[in-house]
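Anyone? Bumping this.
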Amino acid sequence: MKKLALHWQILIGMVLGIGFGVLMTQIEWGQEEVLLKTIKETSQVIHKEVNGELVAVNDITQEKKVYITRAKHFISRWIEPFGTIFVNLLKLIAVPLILASLIKGISDLKDIAKFRNMGIRTIVIYIATTVIAITVGLGLVNLFAPGEGISKETIAKLSSTYEGNSNIAGKLATAAQTKDAGPLQALVDMVPSNAVEAMANNSLMLQVIFFAIFLGISMLLIGEKKAKALKKFFDSLNDVVLKMVDLIMLFAPYAVFALLANVVVSADDPEVLLALLYYALTVVAGLLIMIVIYCLIFALYVKKSPFWFLQKIAPAQLLAFSTSSSAATLPVTMERVEEHMGVEKEVSSFVLPVGATINMDGTSLYQAVAAVFVCQALGIPLDLSAQLTIVLTALLASIGSAAVPGAGMVMLVIVLESIDFPSELLPVALALIFAVDRPLDMLRTTVNVTGDATVASIVAKSLGKFGKPHVENWDDNLDDVTS
Ligand code: ASP
């Protein structure tokens, strides 16, 4: 019997996960509330007289009970951990994979000039696709003006529900740290002072890439003979890690079930989601346009069917959607682009890890739409120069966004600050879009990953390195993987 292709298995897992989540929120048992924890909250500010002056002191501490529905409680305890294990496994192999495949890719190049050529092309095309994405986003948000239809009551409701949310406070604090850094900080952050430390931290992916490129180039420079032992080691490591991707992917259909069931039971009140529907649809329309643009570029430049492209890359897209993290999806994106599409390792091993960290077309499009949307909703006028500033800062912000869930919202704060958005209104701005952030994050991550795969194909084609698919480590079922 012919086994079901991986993307169908994942899709079935996703649909069942959503169905299970919906069922749990609908049944009476799922709707019951259970006590999650009791927290101590210092809520009121009182004033005391100290040396004749009134001083504010926070000393009223109350106990607050936090309740959640039984559906959420059950899924977060018994189902979602399987999704977390899967994401952890993917993250676990990201660093060894980048290291092994990038070092192998560069040392196979045989010539540093080729690497420089590929590097420049990659960065230029990444910037170009991101500027296109931001322009699409700005065009749509100005055309549909989703923020103008938002009533004062909705704004008040959203702000009162989310303004004090600890998630929003966390995002504002992270953004403040990023903003305080100097103009060259991004460059400084790219160079590790300790290779082991860089490899020990998944958020330091660019440092690992820097180290791998440095090592690969030095291997080229000492010549093939002297570098032979090290090259063999990394070649072998690369094969082993690709096998690990296959093994992890066997678990994917079950993991996406867990991840999506959790997304459904954690979703906000449908009424709130409906109020933001017009805004969400504007982002979704922009993201769909980006997918069409990628398909067109692929058909015209790579001269292959866009349906073939979408079919080959589908498992990576579905994982990006389920995990909301381009970094976690990277091992799968690399495998699909290399083995299933035929992009040569020299190109994919550089273009994809760099893309996962700096190329985020979906995120930049979302940031452009969200920035203009909150200004429209709060009645803050934006002239042409402010919109041009958005193009520039959304480009930089998407480069600076981490490839993890919700990162795009942190950098949105930087975009808003660049257009002189009143800082006291920042919590309100985030509160306005918070409710729909997770579904939009899932979709924009899918676009981010598709954009990386498109650019890898363009660069490969331009360098004559788009070969034939060679599925060595097939990953659809256990018999093939272990045979
Ligand atoms: N979650 C996105 C990614 O990993 C980043 C973001 O837009 O929040 O690509």
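Late reply, but here is one note on the structure posted above: Residues 341 and 469 are 5 Å apart (CA to CA).
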